[in-house]
Amino acid sequence: MPFRNRPATPDEALARLLEGNRRFVDGAPRAPVPSAERIELASGQNPFAVVLGCSDSRVPIETIFDQQPGDLFVVRIAGNFVSDDGLASIEYAIAVLSCELVVVLGHTACGAVQAALQSIEDGTRFQGHIQRLADAIAPAANRARTLDGDWYDNAIIENVRDSASSTLGRSDIVSAAVKGGLVRVVGARYDLRSGQVHLVE
Amino acid sequence: MSVDRRSFLLRAGAGLALAGSPVESLAASGPTLPQPSAHEALATLLAGNARFLADKATCPPLTARRLELANGQNPFAIVVSCSDSRVPVETVFDQPPGSIFGVRVAGNFVDTHGLGSIEYSVASFKSPLILVLGHSACGAVKATVQFLKDGTKQPGDIQSLIDAIAPSARAADHNGDWVANATARNVHDTIAALASRSSIVASALKAGELAIAGGVYDLHSGKVTVIT
């Protein structure tokens, strides 16, 4: 197969992502993949990680992890929570593509999380389907309100934790793969200012 | 629209209420930053795809760009695309951070939460363009066509992706390249669903503040072809 060397374990996959983020933070990304390699990929994909991230334009997943076409299977939704079709996409990445790592990636100053806070605080109802985003994040936001520290920051982290645990809890495919040691699920938060990705335990 | 002009626009907008709260502008329909026309937005994406095709992708000054964006975003396009690792949207269109509001799910259709995400960008940032982007050899579309041919089901929740795409695949021309036809039909149907299921999208379309385009990315050539 024409694929570049792929990490052998979930831990190696995570290390590769964090190394890529370091290059991004340092402003020293790798050169773009030449078109010849892109054409090789047309026969099939072999991503090593699936990232559930936010739709926010400031968090382009492949850019902030400095990964190349074919490396990352990406699910994006405003607020990076687990939607039904997002979960199905993650299952596809694990069952069909054998991804070794699932990263749930929140970020600082997330507008969808802020909408959830506002909805809780003063009962704001957002128009159209936007309220559905706030509703999906509300359980994490409510729990965060009881914690010490900044409500907004805590809600971003609790939302990542909820997404990571519901990925496992709602999916037999994911939980079986994790139990078998084939897959790791981790949470992380991207800092818009520093560009750094920090793991959330 | 060049990166420089957008940088200027972002700086010019620094005094607006963006720093604290995109939600405030969303709730109150407050001031938003200037946006290009939908036509200009599409031209910017296609020019970026041409650079990508020619192996002449730009290497943006990422650190400066990141700091500029830390106080707020102003994406000029919403791209609904597939989770497929071979279709990294910002790379395919050679766009820097801050340009594209990305909604990605395997099979590039929209569910309720995808719709909410799109509406958020339309309402908060007045993004003038939605591009629904399918791609050749899409695994979700191929699995759907297989399901229609012989009833092959996918495990777990994966079948829900197939069920979502099945109406488009069923309606697509089975003669010739069924997968390619279903891919195009899925793009058209997703576009139709955006307008019919979202009053925010429908009213922005009616007001001329928003346009929706559909495209297909070819994995071999790297080229995005606009189909509608």
Quick summary:
By secondary structure, chain A is of the alpha/beta class. Chain A is built from 8 helices and 5 strands.
Features:
heterodimer; A: 201 residues; alpha/beta; Beta-carbonic Anhydrase, Chain A; 5-stranded mixed β-sheet; 8 helices; 14% strand; globular; B: 228 residues; 5 strands; 50% helix; 12% strand
Q: How would you portray this structure in words?
A:
The complex is a heterodimer of chains A (201) and B (228). By secondary structure, chain A is of the alpha/beta class. Chain A has one domain (10-200): 3-Layer(aba) Sandwich (Beta-carbonic Anhydrase, Chain A). Chain A has helices spanning 10-25, 35-41, 61-64, 84-95, 111-122, 130-145, 151-170, 172-179, and strands at 49-53, 72-76, 101-107, 184-190, 197-200. In chain A, strands 2-1-3-4-5 form a five-stranded mixed beta sheet, with helices on both faces. In chain A, helix 5 (111-122) packs across helix 6, helix 6 packs across helix 7 and helix 7 packs across helix 8 (172-179). The longest helix of chain A is centred in the last third of the chain and has 20 residues, at 151-170. The model of chain A has no long low-confidence stretch (mean pLDDT 95). With 228 residues, chain B is α/β, with parallel strands linked by helices. Chain B has a single domain (3-226), classed as Carbonic anhydrase (Beta-carbonic Anhydrase, Chain A), CATH 3.40.1050.10. Chain B is 50% helix and 12% strand. Chain B has a five-stranded mixed beta sheet, sandwiched between helices. In chain B, helix 9 crosses helix 10 (199-206). Residues 1-30 of chain B have low confidence and may be disordered. At the A-B interface, helix 2, helix 3, strand 2, helix 4 and helix 5 of A face helix 2, helix 4, helix 5, strand 2 and helix 6 of B.
